[in-house]
Amino acid sequence: MTRPPEKSALWAILAGLGWPLFLGSWACAMFYGLIFWGPLKTELVLRYFAGFWISEVATWMFFVGLASLGFKLVEIFTQEPALRKIRLPLPEQGDQQVEEAGDLIDYLESLPARMRNSYFGRRLHDALEYVERKRSPQGVEEELKYYADNDAARQQESYALVRIITWATPMLGFLGTVIGITMALGGLDAEKLDSNFQDAISGLLSGLYVAFDTTALALSLSILLMFVWFLIDRLETQLLERVDVRANEEIVGRFAQIGSDRDPHLASVERMCVAVMRATEQLMQRQNQLWQSTAEAVQQQWGEAIVQSGQRLQASLSTVLAESLDRNAAAIEAQQLSMVRQADTLSQAVKAAGEVAGLETALNNNLNALAGAKHFEEAVNTLTAATHLLVGRLGQATSSERRVDLQSGQQERAA
């Protein structure tokens, strides 16, 4: 796998030289603004920081070095989250296989650029690339030590600008001393000493002030810068030590190791066994997938068959029930019509029975009257005719009703 570039060349130049120069110059300008127009405008401050151009150059160099150290301090603090948050995924069981180093590299490359470009992120990335390239974790401890030495060397190289400034600032002070002494000695004049000794001594002292003030200022700024440099260097050294410890915890002992340098064939056999096991595992997975797909297809077919059978059964039951309901409805309707006809017949029979009862009453009255009048024979004939008339009416109403035998009744009464 190819590793993306950590930083562009332009950013490296700006971070290493451009930004310290810009911010240092800006801070120096603000400082001299406070000296000339602010609360720092005192005789002592003007004498040491604005008395000669060498003092101003030394002050500017001090602020540039301080800005460079400020960038280093910010970089150290931004590396702290990487130590806490970067955790390589652990294997589900047993040791991690060498073939999984590529997955771990992909995990690191998915992290934010700030964490990926940290000391810890680069250390893990380089170590995993070594394991992936060698296809074995053998020698990874020595490789981690080599990476630690490289980081320490890069750490020292990152202070190159500060190192130059701390070296050049005292030299600049000594240059101011030489220039001041030269100015003091060059201002001496024998005639002026004879005529005006006080003015000659004042010129000599002003030159000596320049000589020793520039040296004192340069040495003071250099000592202060070196002290700040020492503190930041110690912080970064402690950071690198913690990176070494965390890298060893994450890499050393993570991967399964078979064999040694004295027995390389054992590692080859182990890799072949692992390859066979993985091929077998993949074959079993494909077989399981095939069985699962077959079972799902059978289940789906059974489900469809059951649904179709249910639909056919439902349709058959619906048809049978509909026909049965239609037949029952027709039978009920026929029975209802028959009951209506029977009710009409019964009503007519009841009506006829009422008429018969009325006729019987009338006939009895007539018989009683005729019997009293001695016209019994005529009454019998009349009764016979009425009986025949009544029987004819009842026969028209219904054939199922019982007939009234008036003749036998008459005979019974006559008897």
From TrEMBL:
<feature type="domain" description="MotA/TolQ/ExbB proton channel">
    <location>
        <begin position="122"/>
        <end position="237"/>
    </location>
</feature>
<keyword id="KW-0472">Membrane</keyword>
<keyword id="KW-0653">Protein transport</keyword>
<comment type="similarity">
    <text>Belongs to the exbB/tolQ family.</text>
</comment>
<feature type="transmembrane region" description="Helical">
    <location>
        <begin position="12"/>
        <end position="37"/>
    </location>
</feature>
<dbReference type="GO" id="GO:0005886">
    <property type="term" value="C:plasma membrane"/>
</dbReference>
<keyword id="KW-1003">Cell membrane</keyword>
<protein>
    <submittedName>
        <fullName>MotA/TolQ/ExbB proton channel family protein</fullName>
    </submittedName>
</protein>
<feature type="transmembrane region" description="Helical">
    <location>
        <begin position="57"/>
        <end position="77"/>
    </location>
</feature>
<dbReference type="GO" id="GO:0017038">
    <property type="term" value="P:protein import"/>
</dbReference>
<dbReference type="InterPro" id="IPR050790">
    <property type="entry name" value="ExbB/TolQ_transport"/>
</dbReference>
<dbReference type="Pfam" id="PF01618">
    <property type="entry name" value="MotA_ExbB"/>
</dbReference>
<feature type="transmembrane region" description="Helical">
    <location>
        <begin position="164"/>
        <end position="188"/>
    </location>
</feature>
<keyword id="KW-1133">Transmembrane helix</keyword>
<keyword id="KW-0813">Transport</keyword>
<keyword id="KW-0812">Transmembrane</keyword>
<dbReference type="InterPro" id="IPR002898">
    <property type="entry name" value="MotA_ExbB_proton_chnl"/>
</dbReference>
<feature type="transmembrane region" description="Helical">
    <location>
        <begin position="208"/>
        <end position="232"/>
    </location>
</feature>
